[in-house]
Amino acid sequence: MSKSNYALSAPRSILEAARRAAKRDGVSLNQFINTALAEKVATLETETVFTRRAARADRARFLDVLERLGRDPPQPGDELS
Q1: CB 20 within 8 A of CB 6
Q2: Spans of all domains in the chain
Q3: How far apart are CA 81 and CA 64, in angstroms?
C-alpha cells in the first residue's frame, strides 16, 4: 500500500474531539483519522451498492415472496415490539 500526505485543516473542536477519541481507543490521532476515513468511504461505497441493487429490484416479486414466506408467525425473539 502506498502512502501519501495530506495537510488536514479541521476546526479546533473537531480535532480536539478526535484526539480524545483516539486516546480513549488507545491509538494515535493519525490511526484514528485513517480508520474514520476508511469507515466513511466504506459506508458511501456500500450505500452505492445497495442503491444500484434497489434500482434493479422487482417490487411485485418482492411482495410475492413476502406473501408466500410471511405466513408463519415470527420466531421467539423476532417479534416487533
Answers
A1: no
A2: 12-69
A3: 25
pLDDT tens digits, 23-78: 999 999 999 999 999 999 999 999 999 999 999 999 999 889 888 887 788 889 99
Q: What is the DSSP letter of 75?
A: P
Region of 16 on the Ramachandran plot (φ > 0 left; ψ -120 to 50 alpha; else beta): alpha
The full 3-state SS of 35-74, as one line of letters, equals: HHHHHHHHHHHHHHHHHHHHHCCCHHHHHHHHHHHCCCCC
Structure confidence at residue 42 (pLDDT)? 99
Query: C-alpha dihedral over 30, 32, 37, 43, to 10 degrees?
Result: 170
